[in-house]
Amino acid sequence: MKMQSFGRHMRLLTTTAAMSLAIFASAPAFAVTPADTLVEGFAMDDIISMDPGEAFELSTAEMTSNTYNLLVRLDLNDTSKVVGDLADSWTVSDDGLTYTFKLKQGLKFASGNPITAEDVAFSFERAVKLDKSPAFILTQFGLSGDNVTEKAKAADENTFVFTVDKPYAPSFVLNCLTATVASVVDKKLVLEHVAAVTPSDEYKYDNDFGNGWLKTGYAGGGVFKMREWRANEVVVLERNDNYHGDKAPLARVIYRHMKESSGQRLALEAGDIDVARNLEPGDLDAVSKNADLAITAAPKGTVYYISLNQKNPNLAKPEVVEAFKYLVDYDAIGSTLIKGIGDIHQTFLPKGVLGELDENPYKFDVAKAKELLAKAGLADGFTVTMDTRNTQPVTGIAESFQQTLGQAGVKLEIIPGDGKQTLTKYRARTHDMYIGQWGQDYFDPNSNSETFTINPDNADEGKNKTLAWRNAWDVPKELSDTSKAALLEKDNAKRADMYKSLQKAVLEKGPFVIIFQQTEVAGYSAKLKGFKLGPSFDTNYVGPVSK
Amino acid sequence: MSIPETSQLVAGRKGARAKGWAATIARFLVVMVTTYLGLLAVTFFIGRVVPIDPVLAVLGDRAPAHVVERVREEMGLNRPLYIQFYYYLRDALTGNFGTSVLTTNPVMADIRRVFPATMELATVGTLIGSLAGIPLGVLAAVKRGSIADQIVRVVGLVGYSVPIFWLALLSLLLFYAKLQWVAFPGRIDIVYEYSFTPVTGFYLLDSAWQGQWDVFIDVFRHIILPASLLGYFSLAYISRMTRSFMLNELSQEYIVAARAKGLSETRIIWGHALRNAAVPLVTVIALSYAGLLEGSVLTETVFSWPGLGLYITNSLQNADMNAVLGGTIVIGSVFIAINILSDLLYRTLDPRTRAR
After folding, report:
1. Residue A33 and residue A48: Cα distance in Å, rounded?
2. DSSP code of A448?
3. Which of A196, A237, A452, B295 has a CA 20 to 30 Å removed from the CA of A292?
């Protein structure tokens, strides 16, 4: 009996399997995204929190800037200026310490609550008191948990007053206020979701200012509202009908986490996504040749560089530093490895920022490099290691550099590792050389200027862990002083000139071989209208997109 | 022999069996506890000695130094390793695996969400693998040395030796991009994402249960390709093993006896030989199922399948140790559970193991 039924079951199961095959063959997929929905394929595994007071990741910047309001935003027509978002107008006092913002009339959050100066003040207060990663963008103006309610406060319902500790260049203050950490949250809504906390030495307050809830929650008033974030899966935005500016034509934007370039390309070609955000050069090329698809690109504020740890006696020699700058095959890298995803760029300020210097004086020149190495007493070369994260284009550039260094007799050992691993070592200053990228923290020249030219304490215990510190570069005092003085320069043209001189100095003496500036690219369906990438990760606006 | 004697004998055997059971259970418990402790200790210490700073996972790589220091203190990472392990053990024993840094959810909640995805995929994959693999193996054994045998061998070899991500990409290119037979990577279409509420997390079951047949078809079109690939992978193994088990059975005397009795060949192969070969096959299938349940990382990555493999890989890459440890323990438990299950199946299939 049992034996027979075993055989029968087998046959039954086989039949079922055959039937299932029939179902799927008879129902071909019609891959079309809904007409009112934008679907983007996006590698966004860096998102760890959606709280604007906490988030400091590149992918999150895009979500926050599309779902929250700011006082002021970057002017996309001239990124060295800002325009009002919630702020109708603003004035700076004569002593340069007090900024007074007048809000627009009739503003509302997505929840329906009115947006007042009180909400702005609360947003500053919670960001400063939480003191998470991006808080320094605000606290660098002299704000602390003890004084924030005085220094950032509502004078009346429509007037927000911000007091800084030094007469900074107004462009610096306003640029910093375009950062996502200054996003305005719905005070009433957030207060409904605060959790109690036991105060400790590290955290003096008795509640979390809604941080626990806002990690995945939403309390903003941007052009879209955030409906859901599921880590490594999806972010869903929906149109906010209370938005004060031009309403979004689309009802919904869905970001799907897709890690692989090839997968994004397939889905884009099949019509399952409208935009592919992480295409590698090969896939990008194929997309650009497809008549139904289009590509767009925008330079971003991220530079890729190789740095030379000055603790290594060979790398500390100025001739070696200079020689290495001649040993990168910029042209070959530019035309192959970073084609379409970056432009050769040797100065530390990215294009688009106030004071940018568009000069690339170094060319690949083995003879010149050999001469410099001989001058340093290293005519026979030496061996050196470089920590390299195992992603493109970094690995490719490292291999190219290995080969070109070899031509001058320098033996480069590449130590591969994943991002977190190489970074851990880099931060501990135990590397010889490191290849990586640096993205500016906020859209102002000071962000990069500070990290490349300021190192007040070069000891291992140094508190100010800038890139100069990480590479043990004892920055000449006149450079640090210029960098600090530029912060207080009210005249924008003069301020720009100061940054230009700093870039020239780092180009000449700094232990950084800056290679290229990242270009962000996207492939998208030609059916889309108004899709564009912005000059920074927090200006990739999806509001104007329609189908 | 009188009747009381017989009953005494039966009672004695029952007692022995009960003792045997108790010993089995005790042995099983000891094995389980030591396995778990070992698992916890190894993963914990590996997790702590990897050259990755866990604070990076919490803060991302752009946090200022004082924030990094504060969080390190808050996370207790400045305490000695054995104290950290003690706290970890204490929490784990109460079922608290901490909070995932990456998703901000409790690790157990995350696993409850991702594990059904992996399990559904692995189940369908194993079904496909067994349903195709066993008949192919039988065929190869019966027609030993024939063209059919050679073809099965090559098919199996290809399935076993070609990297699965390559096959996955290629099949995506063919069945999804070119032919459009199957759906986009992922578990379900965005159209249904907000109209369908899963209950158990097994989308095929849920949609059928709720009578949402359009959702069922959509889910089916999503699962069929990755499941077929996993199925192909396990088919390779299952068909090879079936073949050798069957060859072994077919050379036994009872087969000759059955033939002499005049039974039909079909009956002999499917009813007698396979029935006996099925016993060791259960272990083979259970092991390959357990292997798939670990989460086939590459398949899940290529198909954007939100399962356990992808979850643990992402957590590892982000140094999210709570999530990695929680996931490892779940996998360990699943392995143990499947071993017990296949043991039980063994008992029902093989009368000899029951008697003893």
Report:
1. 28
2. H
3. A237
